């Protein structure tokens, strides 16, 4: 089922999310709905708070990045097959060179900004079958994970930009809060009636 994506200004996007147990109600259905919602919106990641649930789940599917001219053949092959569910994730280490990439977010449509992040991360998490894993990721995969991880910590990519940049995008952010954004996917806006 395709769920509405919560827009900038919704309180759930600022919550530090709660850990869940493997017997969390309808867990498989929630994850399936999240993938369907993300794919419908042509995203590469989606976190549970973006669909109104303050729980520590996010999903990543970097296949859309595989066709980019900016990636090597080797990285394109990795991006094409990387699809993972992260439950109760904890980033243990961020290291390596910091690099800039122009990020966007399904909760903040039509806003893109350069964000500086570490190249390599070590992350501990449970997969959708509740197998515990510790993995090291780098490049674009690490970046998407960091972006989605921020969501379960109540952080948005716009929090990483300078105050000048924030001032420049403030009108766009206000429009999103007022429901004046028109992406080609369902959204739930902060100020819309019938909440």
Question: What would you say this structure looks like, in words?
Answer:
- It comes from Flavobacterium ponti.
- It holds the Pfam family Pep_deformylase.
- The structure is a single chain.
- The protein has 195 residues and is of the alpha+beta class.
- It is built from four helices and seven strands; from the N terminus they run E-H-E-E-H-E-E-E-H-H-E.
- Strands 2-3-4-5-6 form a five-stranded antiparallel β-sheet, with helices on both faces. Strands 1-7 form a two-stranded parallel ribbon.
- Strand 5 (108-126) and strand 6 form a beta hairpin.
- The chain is globular.
- The two termini are 20 Å apart.
Strand order of the largest sheet: 2-3-4-5-6
Given the C-alpha coordinates, what overall shape results? globular
Which regions contain 5 or more consecutive residues with pLDDT less than 50? none
Q: Helical element count?
A: 4
Characterize the largest beta sheet: strand count, sense, and whether it forms a barrel. 5 strands, antiparallel
Give the class-level CATH name. Answer: Alpha Beta
Quantity of strands, as a count: 7
CATH superfamily: Peptide deformylase
Estimate nothing, just give the exact number of structural domains. 1
> Helicity, in percent?
25-40%
Return the average pLDDT rounded to an integer.
95
* CATH domain topology: Peptide Deformylase
The secondary structure category is alpha+beta
Strand content: 25-35%
Return Rg in Å.
16 Å
- Separation, N- and C-terminal Cα atoms: 20 Å
Query: What series of H and E elements makes up the topology?
Result: EHEEHEEEHHE
Examine the secondary-structure arrangement and name the CATH architecture: Alpha-Beta Complex
Protein name: Peptide deformylase
Family: Belongs to the polypeptide deformylase family.
Keywords: Hydrolase, Iron, Metal-binding, Protein biosynthesis
Cofactor: Fe(2+)
